[in-house]
Amino acid sequence: MQTNTEREEPMGESAFEALFVNNDDLHQLEAYLNRFNPIRVMGMQHQEIRHSAILAWLLNPQESHGFGDKILRAFLCAAFQGRREDGQPSALQIAQADLRDAVVRREWQDIDIFILLPRLSCAVIVENKFHARQHEGQLAKYAGRAREIYEGHDEIPHVRGIFLTLHDEDPADPSFAPIQYQALCEILPAILAREAQTVDADVATFVRHYIDIIQEASGMSKERTEMEKLARDLYRTHRKALDFIWEHGEETDFTFAVEAVFGEQSERGSVTEVEGFEVLFYWNSTDTVCFFPKAWSDAIGKENIHLEGCENYWSGHPLACWMQLFTNEDGGGTLRLYSEVGPIKDRKARTALIDKITAAKLPKTGFQRTATAPNKRYSKFLKGNIVEIKDAQDSEEIGRAMRTLLSRFAPVFDGVADVLPDFA
Questions:
Q1: pLDDT tens per residue, range 56-115
Q2: Average confidence (pLDDT) over 199-224
Q3: Selection from 331, 345, 316 nearest residue 394 by Cα
Q4: CA 38 to CA 54: how far, in whole Å?
Q5: Which residues pair with residue 114 across a beta bridge?
Q6: Residue 341, helix vs strand vs coil
Q7: Helices 201-218 and 48-59: angle between axes, nearest 10 degrees
Q8: d(Cα 81, Cα 199) in Å, to the nearest integer?
Q9: Quick check: 79 and 181 in contact, CB under 8 A?
Q10: Can you say how many angstroms the Cα of residue 69 is from the centroid of all Cα atoms in its chain?
Q11: Of 86, 356, 367, 390, which is the most exposed, with the fewest CB atoms less than 10 Å away?
């Protein structure tokens, strides 16, 4: 941490020259921040209805994208993997089926995406929640409406549901299979890579733009992770100049709230006390603050903190904690607190950690049923982790929301700490 003497030392021109003149790292960071994305330019990246339109286009085998039924098959398999229901097609049957005659409709009977699979004698309704939350009885109503029309008919005797979310949220109707946008972040790049030689260049470019949007929204962007690391390296190298800019430059209301709650942290991994318990502060941006309960670090033990597969995952731990502010068009928003088990390479170890947290039966926690699936890498487990924000430009209201969430989940953090020594 800088001393008062260091803070008061006048800034020399050479410090700014080193930062701004012929600095390739800074130019790379600027290029990333200024990159062109038509979806972002049109302000569509947060509009749920636009995501439904893009997904319906990609899932439709008869559309002009050239992927055929590959994206549809991969999406359905990811959603239904591990869910076996009597008489209904399994993920394995879907993987082996020819779905080129599938019919995909958008906003049919108020259903976000409706998929008819004649060869599997099945209809699928997809409820898409990008930022919004499900309304009471909404899923059951849509499912009932589709079943009234199709279920029981000789040709389409089965109706299944998929609940697609950006945030970790269980469907109110347990018959719906939950899947997150994180899965699409893995499905779309893999298929695009395989079909790169046959897909039209304009289609490939658009899909890459869309992948960029959903990867950033779901925290799955490797490029963003690399840029964050580059930004940290720039900060360490040019700390004095950047601290001066930070001190005299513009701050957001979110960063003001972070400083009010966590204090003015300058060291990565520094310990601070918030609402009666200690946390390791790691970093914050204009809408996100990442931290780690010190009790977790102590419980795991320093020699076991970094597990294979988690080297580039948040702070490098097998678990992560962060708060993120999501704003809406009316100036309000939501503050959400997340904890998740990360991409531990050893599947047995990852499953063991999830099982131990589940067995503790902690309040306000619960993993999705697919948390231990072979292809699952990120598994959030906090419930009731949202505080509504009336004014997203009110730092005091944001700060109160942060304290509310931290106080609400303090017992959960303690409970997870109690099970971690066994895992370590």
A1: 999 999 998 999 999 999 999 999 988 877 667 888 999 999 999 999 999 888 889 999
A2: 87
A3: 331
A4: 13
A5: 105, 125
A6: strand
A7: 130
A8: 27
A9: no
A10: 26
A11: 86
